[in-house]
Write a structure and sequence with these properties.
This protein is mainly β. The protein has no helices and 20 strands. It starts with a strand and ends in a 6-residue tail after the last strand.
Length: 239
């Protein structure tokens, strides 16, 4: 049951006058041929966008893009005519499909927005661009993993993911809580904030990630309050 621990401080960082983006994998100008993805997950960016700024209109295609806000609000607008405000507890998925233009802005005049953005490739391309969001805040009040997005047959999530081998789960844990991780060939466990400990393994704190192969359903214990994002993947890029 190999476990590869990636510490928060070791991530590449993009910093501008309005953005701090920490990358779990190669992204933009930060390229490492040995760290381009894990399983089906290509991007896990931990972004803080200053008040009154954001990403101007830009294009994506053939990508499933999941956004999870930790603090503040992020305004999304795209070329399909969709406009939405994403906030903590509201899950969002954008399927870029055959091509979509969108912007992501922080319209607050005082507060930064902190969010995690994750990308996986759809099973088929091209597909029609689409957008979906759903409120899961009430579900997160219970101990356990909440399936935020899923394409796995028979495993529905709040959002539909156009990849039959992947699902995203989220848990908000209190001190002393324990969750059992999915049994899957590939798991990416990202501690968005707080303190946890992997069963028979090390402590994981905010920004740390564990990449597990053939994990066998290990447990994760919360040392204090924590918010955890778990990608369950039953395939990897390239087969």
């Amino acid at each position: 049951m190999p476990v590869d621990i990636r510490r928060a401080a070791d991530r590449a960082v993009t910093t501008t006058d309005w953005l701090q983006s920490r990358h779990s994998f190669s992204f933009g100008d930060h390229y490492d041929p040995h760290d381009t993805h894990f399983g089906l997950l290509l991007v896990n960016n931990d972004d803080i966008v200053a008040a009154g700024t954001g990403f101007a209109t830009h294009q994506h295609r053939d990508m499933e893009i999941l956004t999870w806000v930790l603090e503040g609000e992020l305004t999304h607008q795209d070329s399909t005519g969709t406009r939405g405000v994403i906030y903590p507890g509201l899950a969002q998925r954008m399927s870029a499909g055959s091509g979509i233009l969108h912007s992501e802005t922080n319209d607050s005049t005082t507060q930064a927005v902190h969010f995690i953005q994750m990308w996986v490739i759809p099973d088929e391309a091209p597909i029609t661009p689409s957008y979906q969001q759903d409120e899961v805040d009430n579900q997160l009040a219970n101990v356990g993993l909440v399936t935020v997005a899923s394409g796995i047959p028979g495993r529905d999530g709040a959002l539909t993911l156009h990849n039959r081998a992947a699902a995203l789960h989220v848990a908000r844990l209190r001190a002393g809580d324990t969750i059992t991780l999915p049994d899957a060939p590939y798991l990416h466990v990202f501690v968005a904030r707080g303190d946890t400990r992997l069963e028979d393994g090390p402590e994981l704190t905010g920004g740390d990630a564990a990449r597990l192969t053939d994990s066998g359903g290990r447990r994760l214990n919360a040392e204090h309050t924590a918010e955890v994002l778990v990608w369950e993947m039953h395939a990897k890029l390239g087969g």
